[in-house]
Amino acid sequence: MRPIVRDFVAAVARELPLGEPIVEFGAFQVPGQEEIADLRPLFPGLEYVGVDMRPGRGVDRLLDLHDIALPDGYAAVALCLETLEHVERPQRAVEEICRVLRPGGWAAFSSTMCFPIHEHPGDYWRFTPGGLRSLLRPFPNVWVGWAGRDDFPHTVIGLGFKGPAPDLSGLLRWYQPWRRRPDVAGVRRWERWANAWLPPALWQTAVRVAARRRRPAG
C-alpha cells in the first residue's frame, strides 16, 4: 500500500455512497505497512471484511479471487487495491468481484504501472489506463483515472458501478490535484534498486532526467 493509494480510498469513502458489508480483496497487510494498509478506520461503524489468499494481519476470510466463495450480491462496496497485478487471471478476478457486488454497489481498484517487481507472493502484470478500463468491462458504468505523466503514469485507479454512476463532481475536484502527485514511495524503491545496481554517475543522470520530465509545463 502506498500513501497515494490510501488517499484515493479516503476520497471515495468520503465522496461516494456507502453501504455494508465493505469487502477488501487483497487485504493482507504486508509487514512494515500495517499502519498505512489498514483501511478500516476510513469506514467507521461499517461492517468490513478483509479477504486474501493467505492468512495474516487484516485478513478475515481466505478466498480465491478466481472463484470467490461468496454469494451473488453479497457486498455493497468492494475494494481491490494494489492487488490485480498479483493475480494470474485478472479478468476472471474482476468478473468475480462484479458478481459478488450487489446492484447499485461500486468497486474501487488501483494498480501500479511504473514500479519494480514485488512478489506478494507473485507479480504478473502492469496496467495502462486503457488496460484497466478493459478489465472493468463487466461493470455497466466505469470511471478510470491515473497519477503521474499522461504518457507514463505511475498509478492507475478505477471505479466500477453495478448500476448508474452516482454524482462524481466532488471526487473529480479531488482528483485534479491528486493526479499530479509523484509516487514518493515508488521513487524510493527505485532509488534503493538503482543504488545497488547502477554506477552512481548513471543513476544521478537518470534522476535529473526524471525530475525534468516530472516538472509541470508552464
Task: Write a brief caption for the model.
The protein has about 220 residues and is of the alpha/beta class. About 35% of the residues lie in helices and about 20% in strands.
Care to describe what's here?
The protein is an alpha/beta fold and 218 residues long. The protein folds into two domains: 3-181, Rossmann fold (3-Layer(aba) Sandwich), CATH 3.40.50.150; 184-218, no CATH class. The chain has helices at residues 3-15, 34-37, 90-100, 129-135, 169-178, 184-197, 200-214; strands at residues 22-25, 48-52, 61-62, 75-81, 101-112, 141-149, 152-161. Helix 1 packs antiparallel against helix 5. The relative contact order is 0.14.
CATH topology-level name of the largest domain:
Rossmann fold
Tally the helices. 7
Which assembly state applies to the chains in this document? single chain
Radius of gyration: 18 Å
| Coarse structural class | alpha/beta
Unreliable segments of 5+ consecutive residues: 214-218
Percentage of β-strand residues: 15-25%
Strands, total number: 7
For the largest sheet, list the strands in their spatial order.
3-2-1-4-5-7-6
Draw up the topology in text.
Blueprint: H1 3-15, E1 22-25, H2 34-37, E2 48-52, E3 61-62, E4 75-81, H3 90-100, E5 101-112, H4 129-135, E6 141-149, E7 152-161, H5 169-178, H6 184-197, H7 200-214
Parallel strand pairs: 1-2, 1-4, 2-3, 4-5
Antiparallel strand pairs: 5-7, 6-7
